[in-house]
Amino acid sequence: MTRNLSNVTFNVPLGAEAHRLAQQFCSQQSDRAKVKQVYLNTLAVSAVKFYLQCMGIETNWEASLSWNPVFQTLMDVADLEIPKRGKLECRPVLPEANIVSIPPEVWCDAEGGREHDHRIGYIAVRLDSKLVEATLLGFTKIAPESGELPINQLHSLEDLLEHLHQIRQLQPTKMQVNLSHWFEQIFTDNWQSVEALFATRENLAFSLRSTSRLGEASVQRAKLIDLGLQLENQSVALLLAIAPDADLKVAILVQLHPTNADYLPPDIKLILLSDGSTLQSVQSRSEDNYIQLKRFRVNPGECFNIQVAFGNVTVTESFTI
Predict the structure, then answer these.
(1) Cα separation of 45 and 13, whole Å?
(2) Do 9 and 139 fall within a single domain?
(3) Domain membership of residue 13 as a residue range
């Protein structure tokens, strides 16, 4: 079915910041074709990010493969992470093109692929000949087997917004861990004692020494974190220690440990968030046997999230007091 896209497109000016970022990314490439590819992909993602911001939809480009120079080199990728929904692939379309091309490496859609890299949709972004304006043409939920989709078969941007709304409604509500229950020795099954989880007495002793400054009233539990195939056979454990503090607050210490190795893999991030904002973040180096957030305090009734991120995989744990 042919659609009249003139009524449903969205124009985005490609300003200095979009070109600065595109230049920054493509400057890390040596192949001329790859330089052009990265530049155009970056402009396409910038345009979609601007559009979603105008629609009040949060994005996290930094968590996307298209932000990572390694994936920019290895893949033809232009994804944009939409928190709590997934990745939206932003495909650039040249001025006179009648089709949108979707490369095979980004065909991981909601119908298949791993949960952490699936695409919730593909949006076509036409770039004008002078690269001063982008036009969002429409989107498709699933990449065609041929990798090419005629522009007149795209769904409208209104359909995209409805699609994103439905995905958010279908997101499962993640169970919050009520840390106040820990003081009553009430724990869920996946939060184990430190003694049960850590394989050696050396690991256990080190963990206990690191958290001892919370005092004798502290309660400690640990949980295995599954980062999928990213870490191959190496696992990590999230350790939380809590203790009563002044003014009815609870003092909290958070660590990340290897469970079957001497050191954490480099570049794992441990992040503290509240209301979607990052409050603290720490990243492992080549020979860190643990990483730790600075101690923080939480009022009764407050909520916070702890994220463990590695590559394009992020695991989030939610807590309340």
Answers:
(1) 13
(2) yes
(3) 5-169
